[in-house]
Fold this protein.
Amino acid sequence: MSGEAKEIRCAGVAKTWAAETPRAHKALRDVDLEVGAQEFVVLIGPSGCGKSTLLTVIAGLEAPTAGAVYCGEETVTGPGPDRSFVFQEAALFPWATVADNVAFGLRLRGQNKAQRRGRAQELLERVGLQEAAAKRPAELSGGMRQRAALARAMAVEPDVLLMDEPFAALDVQTRARMQQYLLDTWRATAATTLFVTHHIDEAIALADRIVVMTARPGRIKATVPVELERPRDPRDPAHHELQDHLVDLLRDEVDKAFVQQEGAAR
Amino acid sequence: MSLSDGQLATLPHRALAQGAARSRRVFTRTVLLARLRRVGWTVASLSLFIGGWEASWALGVLDPLIMPPPHIFLAEIANQGQFFSSTVGESSSGSNFSAVQAMLSSAGRVLAGLFIGFVTSLVVGLAISLSGITRNLALPTITLLAPISPIAWLPVAVLFFGIGNAPAIFTVFLGVFFIMTLATISAVEQVGATYVNVARTLGATRSQEVRHVIIPAVMPQVFVVLRINLFAAWMVVLIAEAIGVGTGLGQLIIAARNTFNADLAFLAMTLIGITGYLLDVVLRQMQRRLFPWQPGMQASAA
């Protein structure tokens, strides 16, 4: 479980919230998804389509209502450091310094202070935060916090990295830099990565393969490989073609999701 | 774009550091000015109050036997020493010293009660929050006992502990225990689900989750409740001392009443006020040192 980059497999995964109550609603239905070892897959879909739900099921934070998730050979039954998670909000612990936040997973494993400090410094350097080690999260900008959260998730040397719209709250310039940090980290560790976003550009910038989900209840609608050289140039005509293709795939689903949400609000 | 990637990366850092230093200087000056202004108003307010009092005495409006002005009852401290200790004939130590001692013993009882209350209610509150059985068994009783005034417990405390520090500390403890237990429970409910999920995805066991996430997350909030309840605790200890302990500042009030000694009453009131204020300062400093990450801490502690 120390950074061997396992593959993730979802077989017939369904998730119904508040099952067996009058308020039950289906978030996911018949999801079959495979993410190969060391692959970078981006999941896109209209808002509320269950992409975050799928990620929490893969993380083991929620149990699927039907079907199963496999990480390598093992069935996922709960959360574990082999599948670390970067949340939409950085969720750094406000009482701990940045270095202590990064080393949190190592502390849980009983590593001593010296070991933790060395490793934290190494990880902070990789995301350009070496100066911030002794600061508290409140003193950091949004982009710095999210980088620290990425370093914290990588500290435990996960086989799989799960990311739930981690850059959604950042401005465009910061986001572009963050994507670069992420790709550098991914290249250095080769962890299998599953990244959720609803930004088509972000998906194209990052993914080996883009998986498009339908409106709720979410299913896999299409899989689009991205065969562009990294670093990717947004002005590349192939980039535009891909973008148009994805917009077409998403249009119906976004409309459907919109009608659902309007209906729910009424 | 002639800047290399490395320069780009360091540039914002330096700008940030300079900006921070400048804003810190400006901040310090503003804070200093605000503080000076506040001290000025405090002095003015006190002068007005004491001045009015002294003037009424000078004009003969107030009878010094009933409402002695500050310069009289403060000067009386040397003659009041005999009341500061319940032990008869102990006057060799000097009355100023015994005044300090009375303040210290009252303050000590409050702090001891608050400390025991803080720890116990944190433990009980966590146990109730984290285990369904504990919640079901303990919460109804705690909710029913909470509205009983700690003063009502005094006879029981004296019967149980006798005369001395213990009943006073116990009453203070009761005064904060229930409310802080309930505060702990609500603080645990407010701990962000994402914090807990972060810990779980990094491999935390249930007990690590509690130790490394829930406890540090709730401590500052529970401490705030403790600070809010300081003055309630301060009143409780005075009553406990007056009734059941026989030493401390509460005892002075009773001695003043029993001897129709207005000088002593006002002297005791002054000491009670000063001690209460100092206790608040102590807790505020503790809060600042222990939980420096709390938002608004700097502003409220200034």
